[in-house]
Amino acid sequence: MTMTTEKTTRGNSAQRIEAALIEDIAAGVLQPGERLDEVKLTERFGVSRTPIREALTRLTAQAILVPGEKRGVRVAQYSRTELAQIFEAMHEIESTCARIAAQRLTLLSRAEIEKAQAACIDAAKRGDRLGYLRANEAFHQAIYRATGNPYIEEIASDFRRRTGPFRAKKFASRADLIASAESHKDLMSCIFSEDSQAASDGMRAHMTASFLKTIDLI
What we know:
Blueprint: H1 3-26, E1 35-36, H2 38-45, H3 49-61, E2 65-67, E3 73-75, H4 80-104, H5 107-126, H6 129-145, H7 150-167, H8 174-192, H9 196-215
Helix pairs in contact: 1-3, 1-7, 4-7, 4-9, 5-6, 5-8, 6-7, 8-9
C-alpha cells in the first residue's frame, strides 16, 4: 500500500468513525459528560488509534466533545442556562427550516419526511427507544434537506448534535415515544400545506414543547 493510499484509507476511517459518534451523540447513546475510551473505540471500529484520534480531534474542534482529564475527551455538557440559550437559537433555525421547506417542498422531500415518520411510528409502537431516537433524528434531517440549502442544513444539524444527549432523556417510556411520534403529525400537516408561516409556527410550538420537557430533566 502506498503512502497516499494509506492516508486516504485512514482518512475514510476517521470520517466513518466521526459520523458514527455524531449519530450516537445526537441519539443520546452517548450521554453528556461521558468519557470516550480510545481502546474501546478501536475494538468497536476495528481500527488503530490513529483514525480514532483524528475523529475525536475533529469532534473536539466542533465543540461536540470537550477535553477531559488525562488527555481524554468527553461529550460536551451544558448548564441549564447554556442549554436554554442553545435551544433559543435552535428554535429560530428549526422554524426557519420548516418555513423554507414548506415553500420549496417537492414530492421527493415529502416522501423522505413521510418515510422518516413511518420509521418513528414503527419504533414507537415497538417501544424501541434507540430505534426511535435514530428515526426522530432522520425525521428532522429530512426537513433540513427539504430546504434545499446545505448551509442551513449544516447549522441545524450542529444544534441537534449538541442537544441530542439532553433531548434523549425525555424518552423514558413507550408512551413518551408514541406521544412524540404523534406530535409530528401536526407539524407535517403544516409543512405539507405549503403555508410557510403555519410551518414556522408549527415547528416553534414543537420545539418549545421539546425544550420544556428537556430542561425539566436537567
